[in-house]
Amino acid sequence: MLPSTLHRRDLLRFAAGLGLSFAVPGLDLRAANRRGPERPKSFILLWMNGGPSQLETWDPHPGTTIGGPTQAIQTTIPDCQISSEYPLLAEQLHRVSVIRSLTSKEGDHERGTYAVRTGYRPDPTTIHPALGAIAVHELPDSAVEIPQFVSLGDPGFPSRGGYLGDRFDPYRIFNPGESGQNITPNVDDERQQRRLAALRVTSQAFRRGRTQRVENTLHQHNLDAALKMMTSDQLKAFSIKDEAAEVKQAYGDTPFGKGCLVARRLVEQGVRAIEVAQTGFDTHADNFTGHTLRAKIMDPAIATLLTELEERDLLASTVVLVIGEFGRSPAINPLEGRDHWPTGFSCLVGGGGLQAGQVIGATDPEGKEKTPTDPIEIPDLYATIMQTMGIDYARELITPIGRPLKLSTGTPIERLLG
Amino acid sequence: MSLRRLWSSVVPLGIAAAIVLLVAAAARSPVHPVPPAPAPDQLAEAEAVVAQVNALLQQQWTDYGVTPAEPADELQILRRLALSLHGSIPSLEEIRRFEADDQPQRLERWTIQMVRDRRFADYFAARLARSFIGAEGGQFIIFRRDRFTNWLADQIQSGRPFDDVVREMISQEGLWTGVPATNYITQAVADGNLDQNKLAGRTVRAFLGQRIDCAQCHDHPFADWKQAQFEGLAACFGEVRITGTGVDDSPGRTFKVEDRMTLEEREVAPNVPFGKPWWPASGSYRERLATWVTHPENRRFERAITNRVWGLVYGRAWITPVDDLPNPSEPGEPTDLLDLLGKDFREHDYDLRRLVYLATACETFRISSTHAAYETGDRIGDVEESLAAFPLVRLRPEQMIGAMCQSASIKTIDQNSHLLTRFLRFVREQDFIKEYGDLGEAELEERSGTIPQALLRMNGRFANEVSNAGPVSASGRISAMAPTNEAAIETAFLCCLTRRPTAEESTFFLADLSGDEPRGRAQVMEDIFWTLFNSPEFSWNH
To answer: Which listed site, B183, B193, B318, B364, has its alpha carbon 20 to 30 Å from A347?
Structure first.
């Protein structure tokens, strides 16, 4: 009649999910020390919040009625041009592929975000996990003491662990580059130790008469894991203080640039999934200025991230996806803006063993044909990413309400798989 | 010259400040509401239902072969009541009044007072709204969550029969701002189009406790729901038109669906899957649907609302998931708790506050959350399932920050609090929930805590702000005013945990205050508050 309480098996499962790695003997071969394609895969999502215009990013149509003033620039992929606002990235584009024919059925920010982050349309009876949460769930790593799913900056609507559980929610950092969020105690060490001693006394009082039940709440486990994390050496990955000035400059002195640099540092620690978000793409008015301003932030950050991952032999094991919740309309409205457009939008995807240099799909340069050629749905993109990360995308998990759900309903895109 | 400039800047500021103070003062009600004692027959009748529910619980304990826990301390029951009904914990002010109350039927009278408090209406409206209009932001301009929630709170506060409230949601016409019930319809607008399927699924889940959403695309795999039935329900919203003047029904509009197989459009007529005699012959299709949903013989309605209310009171629905109930029992079959309480709900004009009162008056609300099984772990599942001990349920985010804000204030934070106090609480709640994680619509599902949440409780700015021994905070006032160190420690425990410290706890903190190297009282108070916020006792309803 009522849900039964946590049982031992659940507890173990929870403990694994909580990243109670310190309970497990350290592995010799830390992910942090490994390089090349054999390294466990990581996933970086660079989120363009608000719905970036495909025409001002990866799918420009200069000289047409829909193209607006945006110019195109030749990239290192033959016959592939992107917006001239991304000159640095144009030099690195051969490291990834371009999809210009994404389609989704959701043109609202919240619903669109949900659809693109999870590969499922919103469903009132289930919350689907974001791809990052799935990656952590499917590829656990006991050697990482810091959270395995990290979100940097303001992602608009946050990603969720969904039916996998709240412990798969991302650890959110609102100001990238400084340190972890809520990592430092508010008082000096002596006082902190006294507080923790007091906490042991009051916890003991609460346990009386319900020792096992309180144990099952995992409150203490979470607290211990949090304390362990607060003193972990791996925390250094969150701070860019020790990075050389020229490296920081190359990424750009912006929250997004710092976020990308932190993302590289987290990948080096073996963190499974990282999201870095840049806001401001919802350009219903003054679309072109808006995109020019954001491009100045995005261009150096993405280009440097790709270069550095390659230099450090990490790109082969790290999938990088640059995407937003939808694209923007070919038609330019009277406010020089573009409105929501969930059909025929673009993304960049590469690394992690995916084929680079591919250009998939095309949109109508006149903007008359709504459906792009070679349309790709989000679930297909996610099945592809999961496949290359070594995740069985077709695996069915039983959700808490007893409904079996596949990790992804899509089919991998053959041209992207090596 | 400069004096004049100074003057010209000071005057407007002064006027603005005066207006703020006056408005704030005017917004406060001068008298703390003390509702009249209930009529004796009212309580007697309620007692009869409670006795039936208790007998049912007793039977359940016998069937499971478990012994119920000992009665809980009344102060702990007061804490449960505050968390369930107000999303907060009792203030020190309330604890003192409660302890000073030596009249009979103290818990009964206090519960009635608490469900009549505006805090109850506001809190329950916010919770119920999540099942009625979801947790999404919705379509800009035409969806106004705030208006809907305030309207719902007004209805609860006025004691309006709940079936009537639901009928208004389903069938009302008008503008989303002036007639807030219509937001029930506009919640289903995305990209400028009304999604009738979403409304059909929502209506059946929220008001009838059945998940038929999957029948939108195919027949339900194990229940008796067919795709055609779903389409018939969706067609009940087929006349809806949304224009600049609001939501209305345009008779003659037809509802079409695209066949998944043939991709052809076909017309679907409004229809209901069961209870055809309850379908009225006249009225707009929405009016007819509203009548059908809330028909007195449609027991799914009373059972669905009862199950959700039970879930909000106990943190866990009687049947989970909260919106997927088995069919009501047939005549002759045994009745369950939802039948018992649901029948009372119907027979008393669908009085939501009475239903809440009854749920909190059951024996299981008043027994301890300690139990031999909880101690040893042996048969812990049976005790939990049969409610032989009060269930340990993690506080939801809004309860967590509500409790933290209240513990930092000696006085009760309610509609009589200063506007600035309420504003601060509102802002803190928004910020905290953003960081702690919003549970969205599925807030009655069982969840585990997370490491980021533990970090936020320990090192976040909320814990720091709330425990800071400033001039108006509880920790500051206790450290300045308490006559003795013992009294200071005891008061801090009452503020945070609604109980007095144990001997060990007193000894521990007294050592800080009066040992060989005593620390400042303010600092120790801050440490006590920090400690108690981070204790499992604070973040689990017990």
So the answer is: B193
